[in-house]
Queue: 2 jobs
Job 1
Amino acid sequence: MSEKPETPEPVEDLLSATAETAYFWGRVAADGKLAEETVTVRASDEHAADALAAIAGADKIDHSVDAHTSTHDASIVRYEDEFELRVFGAPAQRASAALGLPLDGVPGGYRFDVFSDHRAPLIRGILEACGTICFRESTDSVGISFVHDDEQFLETVRSILADIDPHVPTRALEDSSSGGYWFGLGDDAEVDRFAEWLYADSDESGLYATERRQKLKRSVERATDRDVDSLSI
């Protein structure tokens, strides 16, 4: 019987610079929204939803099953669990001011410098919320891409990825079939090292989506001919 995943502790201040808040705001920026007195964030994974609720000290998560159109093929519709939680009060306006997140539909500037020491959980939250992972049978490689309606947000993510080690070059933004934008990692990206960097210490922190982490792990193992469970993420 597998052990229950760790759940992070609530943070005293959602605008402090910690691994927990980096993960939280990465997910909000990628698949959430700010209104004047409300932060809304979504997850398709129950463990990730529980982690987000724990970080924010929220005690209620709404659960539904929703239809999602594929980013790259609008004819494909998938039905997925969706968990949504809301945080009420000052954090919305404070996050808009401090992090440049859009508020009530007004475009933001996306300033994530405060999380410069926590880039892995920040990018992890973003990838889990608005990214795609696939194994390419034709080339035995892993495809990783980020998809969003906001062009500036994706350019900010590309800028962060350009500054990290391991080496993960990215392609230019393209239009998506859903009306937004997307970009993928370059063919020469060190995807196996990126995966290990991205999920380092995630077992201890509890900051991850179970299904997404497992999909990346298995895809990298197939692409690199490593034994199952050998990848340390």
Job 2
Amino acid sequence: MMQSLRALAAVIGLAATIARAAPPTTAELEEICAPAEDTVQCGRLVEAVQLKRLPNLARRDGRVLSVSLYPSGTATFTDSDDSANGKFYSLWDYVDGLNAVLLYTTAAETTTFTLLQRTTNRRIELPTEPQLAPDRQRLATADVCEKRCSNEIAIWRVTPEGIRKELTWSPTAGWTDAGAKWKDAETLSIEYTTPNGPGKIDRPLSDPTWKRMQ
């Protein structure tokens, strides 16, 4: 009985530690990454902070980042500096509502995010940092910029079998940046920038201009 209680206490303690995790704020990123020479080093500096915040979730051993799965097991991500297919992973955040880990992923000049579902070891690459809906059934990404972006707002459906793209919408030409957050479980609030200044719109998921993915 005492051993079972200790095991339960350990699980509760781990959950409490993880639940306090949060992605770096803009101010934190500016401070953490000030000495970084490139995106890979920035990711490593963020990872060093997050490993301290999440001591039981992941560990770094040279090129290998190991992430604990639930209820048991380990997922490994190995950095490669191959000139053609090199990729680097850095711990970014724990997504409490999905029991998932978010990794900052760098390949050449492209940065994305890899979401690992800890209960299934399923992985999916997302173009930007995802925002979890209040009902935990969907994710939103906003990949909008002047160069090397899809210029697409996307909704991703979360299921036990994995995560799939459900809806997409391409904003009006001229947007140079955008960010999306959930107003409620069925509505996105999107802040964007144009050469004429910033703007903000709400987009219900019921809007017929969304493109539904098959």
